[in-house]
Write a structure and sequence with these properties.
four-stranded antiparallel sheet; 15 strands; mainly beta; eight-stranded antiparallel sheet; single chain; 164 residues
Length: 164
């Protein structure tokens, strides 16, 4: 029905889960670093990329795909699974036998993993970044610290104003 409208340029092609590099934190992990950490990356079914972390976290990313009509583009998607003895909790986080969250899905569609040798975020396009993160006092959860923009949305102009 709307196929002609997209081709005529009246309606845009729709893309779901398209990501911008602007939202990414951390620094890209090198191939050597990934190999040294014991992360095994290989091709899966349907052109997917499977990353298996030594702590039992498995991430599968599927490439972007167009609908049959070409008017809808589904962005790259990512799946998270837990290998025993780990399990997925009710929030979809991977929890180890000690009750510590070792991997979780982020709002932007990426997955952050505590590899035991550092924190890494894997994005739907397959990119893996090394992260700076801290664990909660009880050690059960973690938070990624964006060292690229540690002040968040604050700008110098925001801090120069006089406060009463």
């Amino acid at each position: 029905m709307h196929k002609g409208l997209v081709e005529k340029g009246i309606l845009p092609t729709v893309s779901f889960m398209e990501m911008s590099n602007d939202v990414r934190s951390g620094i890209p992990a090198t191939g050597t670093e990934i190999k040294d950490l014991g992360i095994k990356v290989h091709r899966g079914q349907g052109g997917s990329t499977v990353s298996e972390y030594p702590n039992g976290v498995k991430i599968e990313t599927l490439p972007a795909a167009d609908s049959q009509t070409g008017s809808i583009r589904l962005g790259p998607t990512i799946g998270l699974s837990a290998q025993k003895p780990n399990h997925l909790d009710k929030y979809g986080e991977v929890v180890d036998p000690k009750g510590r969250v070792i991997a979780r899905m982020n709002d932007d569609g990426s997955v952050t993993v505590d590899s035991g040798k550092g924190f890494f975020t894997q994005y739907p396009d397959g990119t893996i970044n090394r992260e700076t993160a801290i664990r909660s006092r009880d050690g059960k959860t973690f938070a990624v610290i964006d060292t690229n923009t540690p002040l968040g949305d604050l700008r110098p102009d925001d801090m120069n104003g006089h406060h009463k």
